[in-house]
Specification:
2 domains; alpha/beta; 6-stranded parallel sheet; elongated; 14 strands; about 375 residues; two-stranded antiparallel sheet
């Protein structure tokens, strides 16, 4: 392997792999024949295995600083009453993960409007639509508000959230709550200057205290809300109730998911836990992802060329074994980095480069033979017959 590592042809063949990758990226290809495979692997990310199989969050304790209030199927008047009890307990912040699309009963709507107008720590959720004004009628009166949209929520797995949106840096629901409750952590979030953050699902929903909204009149229950962040939203009573559930990396089925596994209010809870604790998942910068791809492709190319020239009988067997072993090893190392160090590495360029390397090697050999016949340019591939 090291015999050919620094040969000009090894370096040139490695460069050609990435040239071919760039050309393939520019060619529009009809992939309808692959639709069944695409559907089976839709929205799959191997890092999900860190949660589903390696149980990344298994040793995380309960977050006692966040309380979820289950509003169930409460009417607006009941929600207004719940909010009154919650605010009376003097929490750090209250997030109403409820969308009020249009007016209903005038008296109830007036009560809700007054609550949102008089309480800065009460954050109203709404749906953000770029380039248009939102239709939620209470927004104009709410002192604090934030959009509750998730990145990829249209049938996909919720892995990211956008802290701020648009040129105006409109606050998300979670950022608005963090500003009210966790001042220093909010500043750190802003200083990261990330358009999207990878959500650290540090806790399943069993690791958050859930209070039934109908029990808030009990003084012992309301006392538990004091000094906490309170999230009010819908919590399903049955696993088959998927009214406000989304797919997350915690889903037991990493491929071919069928049933959403987590309500939006618990996704917000995980985001808030991450912001407060500062446990952000770091991304390898793109230049580093591609540098790793070039380095590993170069090493594989040296190995492939050695067997291509010196032991051609074993070339294909060694190449396939090397590709399979490398794929398994890289996935494991990527998962280990994600699990142990909260670091996400994009190994897709590496996988593609190593897969293409064998075919590109044959193409490169043909180019070398043509250049030798045409211009007399030497190469380690000249006079090699197989």
């Amino acid at each position: 392997m090291f015999k050919y590592l620094f040969k000009r042809d090894t370096l040139a063949a490695t460069v050609l792999v990435f040239v071919v990758m760039g050309l393939l990226a520019l060619i529009p290809i009809n992939t309808h024949v692959l639709d069944p495979i695409k559907m089976a692997l839709q929205d799959f990310d191997y890092n999900d295995l860190a949660y589903a199989e390696m149980h990344k969050n298994a040793h995380t304790g309960m977050d006692t600083g966040i309380v979820v209030v289950n509003i169930g199927n409460a009417s607006r008047s009941e929600i207004a009453e719940m909010l009154t009890y919650v605010l009376a307990a003097k929490p750090l912040a209250v997030g109403a993960d409820v969308v009020f699309n249009s007016p209903k009963e005038a008296a109830t709507d007036s009560m809700l409007r007054q609550l949102f107008a008089e309480n800065e720590t009460l954050v109203l959720a709404y749906n953000y639509i770029p380039g248009s004004s939102s239709g939620e009628f209470l927004l104009s009166s709410a002192r604090t508000k934030g959009y509750a949209n998730f990145v990829g929520e249209e049938g996909g797995v919720i892995r990211h959230f956008a802290p701020f949106a648009g040129k105006e840096k409109t606050e998300s629901f979670d950022a608005a709550l963090a500003r009210q409750a966790y001042g220093d952590a909010y500043i750190k979030l802003k200083e990261r200057h990330q358009s999207t953050e990878i959500i650290d699902y540090s806790r399943s929903q069993e690791k958050y205290l859930v209070v039934d909204g109908t029990t808030l009149a009990d003084p012992t229950i309301s006392a538990a809300l004091s000094g906490k962040v309170v999230l009010m939203g819908y919590v399903a009573e049955s696993p088959n109730d998927i009214e406000d559930k989304h797919f997350t990396p915690l889903n037991a089925k990493s491929v071919g998911k069928s049933v959403p596994d987590m309500e939006g209010v618990f996704i917000h809870a995980n985001i808030l836990s991450m912001i407060r604790e500062g446990n952000y998942i770091q991304r390898f910068p793109q230049w580093l992802n591609w540098s790793v791809a070039v380095l590993l492709c170069w090493l594989h190319m040296a190995l492939f060329i050695r067997y291509f020239l010196d032991h051609h009988l074993w070339f294909h067997l060694v190449a396939k074994i090397a590709q399979v072993v490398s794929a398994v090893l890289f996935v494991y190392l990527g998962l280990l980095c994600f699990y142990q160090f909260d670091m996400q590495i994009n190994l897709s360029p590496t996988f593609v480069a190593i897969i293409l390397a064998v075919d590109v090697l044959y193409f490169y050999e043909a180019i070398c033979n043509w250049l030798h016949k045409k211009y007399g340019i030497g190469s380690i591939f000249i006079h090699q017959h197989h």
